[in-house]
């Protein structure tokens, strides 16, 4: 049975926000909130239900009951070298200490495959490699494609103009460079006419 995307997303959301040993606020049957401690990463029970595991509770518990507090996540675009593979970038949502990330988007192809993975290799480095895993029980996988560029939360050093700039969507160059390239293209088109 194919898990509902919502449940898969919920597992990823819990794990991106909270690690093992972290305190989480969980809504109880009577509506009260209790502070529990994560015993293991959230997982998809039976392949269809998002659950959490806490020290204070003997069995698993619905992840729908987790109240998200915690700091905001950091979004990072990682661009890979071109080895002819079907994806050139991952958008990764990291917990601010970069210990744990979730692939939230991959492109231009294979989003369905890669967005099931967690990133466990820490803060991405240019020239480095990502280590990813589907769950703590699964084998980890080191991607062979070298990281060529990293853009954190829409800001970063542009590989073309070498300036600190803002990036839209998953453009590889900063907005200024993209705008300039576009203008030049238009000029060339006008010239050809
Ligand atoms: Zn630029």
How would you characterize this protein structure?
The chain is of the alpha+beta class. It folds into two domains: 5-67, SH3 type barrels (Roll); 74-153, no CATH class. 18% of the residues lie in helices and 36% in strands. The chain has three helices and 14 strands. The strands form three sheets. A seven-stranded antiparallel beta sheet has the order 11-10-9-8-7-6-12. Strands 4-3-2-1-5 form a five-stranded antiparallel beta sheet. Strands 13-14 form a two-stranded antiparallel ribbon. 26% of the residues are buried. Zinc ion binds next to helix 3. Residues 158, 160-161, 163, 165, 173-174, 176-177 line the site of zinc ion.
Outline of this structure?
With 193 residues, the chain is an alpha+beta fold. 18% of the residues lie in helices and 36% in strands. The chain has 2 domains: 5-67, SH3 type barrels; 74-153, no CATH class.
């Amino acid at each position: 049975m194919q898990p509902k995307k919502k449940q898969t997303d919920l597992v990823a959301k819990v794990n991106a926000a909270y690690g093992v040993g972290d305190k989480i606020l969980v809504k109880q049957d009577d509506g009260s909130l209790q502070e529990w401690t994560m015993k293991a990463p959230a997982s998809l029970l039976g392949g269809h239900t998002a659950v959490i595991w806490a020290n204070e509770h003997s069995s698993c518990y619905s992840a729908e009951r987790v109240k998200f507090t915690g700091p905001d996540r950091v979004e990072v675009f990682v661009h890979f070298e071109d080895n002819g593979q079907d994806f050139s970038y991952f958008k990764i949502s990291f917990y601010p200490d970069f210990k744990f990330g979730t692939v939230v988007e991959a492109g231009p192809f294979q989003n369905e495959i890669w967005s099931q993975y967690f990133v466990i290799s820490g803060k991405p480095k240019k020239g480095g490699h990502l280590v990813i895993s589907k769950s703590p029980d699964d084998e980890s996988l080191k991607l062979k494609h070298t990281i060529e560029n990293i853009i954190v939360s829409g800001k970063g050093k542009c590989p073309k103009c070498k300036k600190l700039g803002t990036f839209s969507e998953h453009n590889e160059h900063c907005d200024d460079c993209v705008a300039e390239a576009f203008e030049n293209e238009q000029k060339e088109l006008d010239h050809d006419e």
